[in-house]
Chromosome segregation protein SMC (Pseudomonas veronii 1YdBTEX2), 789 residues
Amino acid sequence: MKNIKAITFKNFKVFGGEPYKINFSNSNLVLLDGPNGYGKTSVFDAIELALTGTISRLIPLENRQNPTDIVVAHAGADEVEITLEFEDDIRGTHLIQRRLKNPLPKDAKKISRFADLWQLYEMIDGTWQQTSADMLNDYLGSKNFSRDFLLFNYIQQEETARFLKSNNETQRAEELSKLFGDTKAAEQKREQLLTIGKRVDIQKRNALSRMNTLRSAYNITSSAQLSNTIITNHFFIFPWLSDRASAPEWDRERLNSLTQEKLNSFLQELDHIKNFFTHKEHYLKLKALTRAAQEQELIKYFITSFKSLPKINEYLQSELETSFVRQSLQFLTSENLSDIKNISTLDHLFNTLKLEGASEFIIRSEELIFEESKQRGLGSLYTELIRHHDAMRQDLSKIPDESDCPLCGQHYDNHDSLVREISKNGDLMRAMLSDQDKRLVTMRDNFRTINLRPLLIAIELFLKNTTSPTQDETRALLRANELKERLNNLSNWLIKEEIEHNDILIPSLPSNITEHQLSLAVEEIIKRILASAGTPNEGYEEANTGNVFDRIFREYFLNDKSYMQDDIPSKALEKEQYIRNVFYSSLDSVIKELGQLEKYHRALESAAYDINEILTVMKSQIGQYRKKLITDIEIPVYIYSGKILQTHQAGLGQGIFIKDPTGGAELKNVRLVSNWKSDHDILNTMSSGQISAVVISLTLALNRVYSASFSSILIDDPVQTMDDINMSSLVELLRNEFGDKQILLSTHEDKVSKYFTYKFLKYGKSVRRINIMERKDYIPSNNYIYQSS
């Protein structure tokens, strides 16, 4: 037998990063006591997680949300470990460990994927090694220990009626029937036969479907009149496609499974080809025009830049000079001498403006910079204020309607009053200057009046009188120059096709055309291009429904006019007759195939009948055998439930019956009743406390009958749902009937803990009490004095 010797927690729920170990060794009864909320149930959760890889009482509620933490991790820890140590009569001590995976699988923090978080390890030769659930199943002597643990070994605090409430009567029977290993081989054979039966059904449906398809696709009743059809030799309409995967099916040497539907489709395709040749002239012309009209970007550059390309160098030079002058203007208008000095090509600026005095300008600016460099302290501040004051006064002269001071916001009667007041303040600041400061101000005023202002006036006149293209127009012109050859070809093609366009082209730069106007101009040229195709022949639109001509030209002629041979329409007529002849001659083979299918279908029906008969017999025999096996737990459940309940509606000492209400020879449903003559399930006749007692009885009965290797029984705080009488009966049952088992029981009531301790110690059983709140364990001794009767 195997039971739990110890468990060690690390970062699990209330247990922190310091490993905490609980020892269960050499104890018939282990009591976890202490107030609620200190980790009693967490101990059971940890044992369940270590043994099964999940915690069954967790409920996924997050929907599409992805939690950021692990539900059982202490304070968001990344290292969570549960180590379980077993006592084994044969192998001695054996250790396993559930450890949080690293890295975590994607979305595994969701409760719905909780089991994906954990990796199982086994201690082998002193080292932890990864292992699988199969190892644990083998060690604990179970094919599916995760299921058996919840049925045989673990009674949860709030889920004591889980087996009864979560399963209907049929599901209860199926769940209990999984325990009967005796029927496993028969079930496997039955499953194999079911698989064979499904395959036979699929083949039968396929045969029937093929038969119906042939009957509807071919008019079998009229096949006699189509006999003796003469088939001519095969020929290709499109020989250049014969060795390609894209070759049309109707032009291949062999026409397989030629149905009426396919025949109609092939004939319609040949009609499309004949119509294509009827309208080929208009189609090819329209296709060429459409291709030209699709070159919208080229047409845009054709409109904006084609006529300006001969003067591209002049336009580029003009735009370059204008940009240079505008950039220089930004430096000059700032009146910042350092910025003005950074204009490295002042000589070039004066030459561009055709203005003299470049040397004088440079000398005076350098003198002024030198004079400013000598300024220090308050005088320097005053001169700088005067400079900004003068600049502000200049700017105000450009706003004749302004009458509010831009500095203080004070309102004046008119603009002239504002200007006079600003000038007066300027004179006042000048009066505060020293002689050296006054000299600097004078030099600055002279430089502004004599040197700077004439230059600014010249720049304004230059920009006003110069018409150069914008930067966007220059970029467009450069791009048009790259496309010059294509633009020339477009121009020549428009002239050749006699498509008027000169009235739309922009004659010179700069232009004031907007993006909207340019779009309209592009649309107009496209409209004129497409209009030049002329009116199509009668029936063209109907024949080209869905642009079928584009597909014909692409798939059959590879977008190459050289393949469009004149004899193709006549070949299409011959191909129509050839396909019809092949279709008519194929009916003999269709009738033969149909006969074979009917014979095959009858054989499948016979096989399906035999399989169903065998399956029915097997199911009945397996059910009857299970019916016999259910008697293994009927008596223990009746005895254990009677001992715990003591008294209930059915009478004193009466137990619970396991009943199949269908009453047949097979086990189909499982109903638990308190009176054999009643058909009402105990879920509807007993209180929650009594139902809990019945579930504990059922678990204990299952454990007694089927649990062969793992001896531990876990009961989480049964006091919450059971009364004192049932508790008293439970302790007697556990002590007397399960003395060879390891009982792990939790309770939040100290009196119950002491009562269980007393009952077990009185009969010489070992007890270990563990106070989870205090993290301490006690091994009470039998100091009770018993009086003889």
Q: What stands out?
A: The two ends are 38 Å apart (CA to CA). Confidence is low (pLDDT under 50) at residues 221-228.
